[in-house]
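## tool: complex_structure
## caller: assistant
## args:
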Amino acid sequence: MLTVEGNRLWLILIARDVAVVVIALGVAQNLLYLVQLALAGWALARRPRVGRSSALWRILGDISPPIALLVPAYNEEATVVENIRSLRSLQYPSFEIVVINDGSTDGTLRAVIKAFDLKPIVRAYEPAVSHRLIRGLYGSPEYKNLLVVDKENGGKSDALNAGINLSRSPLFCAVDADSILEADALLRAVQPFVEEPDRMAAVGGTIRVANGCRVHRGRVTAVALPRKLLPLLQTVEYLRAFLMGRLAWSKLQSLTIVSGAFGIIRRSVAVAVGGYSRGTVGEDLEIIVKIHRFMHEHGADYAVRFVPEPVCWTEVPESLRVLARQRIRWQRGALEVFFKHMRMLLNPRYGRVGLLGFSNTFLVDVLAPPVEVIGYLLVPAFWAFGLLSVPYMLGFLAVTFAYGVFLSVGALILEEMELRRFPLARDLLVLAVVAVIENFGYRQLNNFWRIAGFWQYLRGAQGWGQMTRIGFRQV
Amino acid sequence: MSFLDALWVGSLALVALSLCIVMFLIIHRWLDGRIERHLKLRRGQVEAAIFAFLDGKADQDDVSKAAGHRIELVGEVGLDLVDLVRGQDREHLIALLAALGIADVQRRRANRGRRLARITAVARLRCFHDDATQVALQCALDDRDPDIRLAAAESLAEIGALPSVAELVDKLRIGTAQHSQSLRHVFRGLARRQSGELVALLAGEAPSLAKVLALDALGRSGDYGVMAPIIAASEDADVDLRAAAFRALADLGHPAALAAVARGLADPAWEVRTQAAICVGRIGLATLLPKLVELLGDSVWWVRFRAAEALFALGETGEHAVIAASQGAPGPAARTAHLVLAERAA
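## result:
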C-alpha cells in the first residue's frame, strides 16, 4: 500500500515538473512571438524610404548593381518557358537569367531551347564552388541575358552552385522556377545593397501564396485568396512567418533564413563560404547560417536583411500528402542545419545570431515539436492516473488558442496597415476566421509532421520527395 | 480572482481584442475603399484638367475646380506627372503647381508628420527652384534622420543648390552614418559646378567613401583638367580609392593616363589590376598590350578575364595576342585565352 502511495507521489512530482517545463516553454515561445510582433510593427513603420516603382527607377536606375537570376529547374517542362518570359520582363536595369536544368528527365531543356531558339555556346567561368558535371551551355544572340546550363542531376544546391560559377554579376538572386516575381521586386530587394554596399551580404523578400490569384503571361494580375482550406491556412502561416517573424529577426540582425524561392546574395560572399552545401534539404537556411558563421569568424562587418515589399508569389500545396512532404522536409532541413552549426548556439562569438537567432531555432525547431507532442500525450496519461485537472487544462488550452488567434490578427494588422495586398475587406474576415480554424487540427497536424521530420532526420533520410504542382490559374 | 478564472478572463480578453481589431480593420478598409474610389475618380478628373491646361485649353482655376479645390490632390497627381513629362510641358506643370501653392504644402510636409511622408515631401521639393524651397531643403540637410538628409541632398543636387562639398560631407556624415550609393547622384551633380571642391576633397582628409564618390563624379565630368588629381589618387594607399581612380580614368578615356594604368596593371591588389585592365581596353592603350598578355596568367580569374576582354577591345592585334596565348604553354593564361576565344566564336 505504501509502495503504491509512494509511486503515486513520484508520479505527481514528475507530472508537475513536466507540466512546468511544457508550460514554461509555451510561455517563452509565446512571449517571443509577442516581441516579434512589436518589432515587426516598428520595422514596418521605418521601412525603406522609397515608395512607388517609378521613384525607385529614378533613384536606383543607374546605380543598381547587376544581378544574376539563378533559376534551378528540375522537370519543369510545363511551366519553365512561361516563367523565363516572366523573368525577362522584370523592371531592372541590368540582369541576366541563368536557368540551370538539373538533369531533368522530362523535356525541360528541349522546351527552353525550342522556345528561345538557343544554340550551344561556351562561356569562360571560374570554378569557384563545386557542382556536378555541366553537359552543355546554351544561349542566343537574340536573348543576350539568357543562359541555360544543362548539368547532371545533383539537387537544388548543386544547381545553384553551377549558377554561381557561371554568373558574372556581383549579386545573384535564387528564384524557384515555379515562382512569380512582381515586376519591381528586384528594384525593391536591391535597395539594402545600394544603401549599405559594403555591409550587405544577403537580402530576402516576402513570399506570398499565389493559389487563387489570377495569372496572365507570368504576372499576377488579380490578387485573391485561395478557395481551398489548406492553401488558406498556409496564407495565414506565410503572413505570420514573413511579416512578423522574418521582419523581427531582421530588425534584431539575427535573421537565419532567406527564402530559397526569392533571395539576393552577394556572389563573393557565397563563394567565400563555399557556395550552397550539396546534399542538404535546407539549402536556403544553411547558406545564410554559413554566411553568419563565416562573417563572425572573420570579424567582418556585415548584414543580412529582410525587406517586406519585394513580393514573390508561389504556389503552395493543395493536398495534405504534398504539404506533409514539404513540412517534413523543412523540419529535416532545420535540424540538419542546427546540428551542423550547433556550436553557434548561445556562443557569444557569433553575436546576436548565436544568442538570439540560433536560440530561436533551438526553441522552435528542436525543442518545441517534441515538447508539444509530449504535452498532448501526457494529457490522457495524467487523466488516466487521475492527475489531470480538466478545468485547468481547458483554461490553458483556451489561452493558447486565443493567443494564437491574436498573433495571427496582429500579422493581419501589419499587412493591412503597411502593405495591403488583399483587395477586398471580406478577405480580412476570411483570414481572421482561418486564424481561428487553424488551431483545431491544422496546428496539431503540423506538429505531427515536424515529429515525422525529426524521425526522418534521426534515420538519416535523404532527398526532396516529389513536389506536385497544380499550375497557376490562368486568364 | 483565482488563477483559473484569470486564464479564462485572459482568453476572453484576447478573443475580444482580436475580434475588435478585425472589425476595425474591416470597417477601416470599407471606408478607405469608398474614399479611394471617390479619389480615383477625382484623380482622373484632375489629370484630365492638367493635360487640358498643358494644351492651353484650361486654366489654373479649372484644375483647382477639378480637384474640388483640394490642393493636396492636385499636388499628388501633378507631382506624379512631373516625372512623366519633359521640356516645356514640365516647366508649365511645375509653374502651375507652384502657383497653386503645392510647393508650400510640400515644404510644410517636409517639416512635420510621419517620417515616410516627410521623406516623400523632401524628394518632391526637387521640382521647385524658389528661395523658400532652397531654404527648406537646407534645413532638411540638418535633420536628425539620415534618410531625410540624403533626400534633401538629392533634391538640392537636382536644383543645383548644393552647399560646399566639405559641408555636404560633414552634414551627411558620409562614410560614418551614410554609405548609400545614391550619393553618386549627389556628387555627380556637384561635379558639374564644383569640380574644384571635389579635387580639393581628394587632397584633404575626407573619409574614403567621400573620395571614392568624388572620383566617380570627376570621371563622369568629361573634364580632362581633373586628370592629375585622379592619377594621384591611383597611387593612394587605400585599395578602394585606387580602384575608383582607375574606374574614373576609364570613364574619362584620355590616353594621358598611360603611365598610371601601366603601374595599375602591376598593382598588388587584384581589384586594382582588374580596373586597370578595363582601363586599357576602354582608352585603347595599345602600347600596354604585352602587359595585358602577362595578366592572362594572373592568379585571380577576374583579372585574367578582364585582361582578355581588354585585349579584344584593342582590336585585331589584341585578338591575335589572345590566339597566341591560347596556343602557348598549358596554364591559366592558355586556358583563359582558349575559353574566351571559344566564347567569342560561339
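## assistant note: Residues 2-44+352-460 of chain A form one domain. Chain A has two domains: 2-44+352-460, 50-323. Handing back to user.
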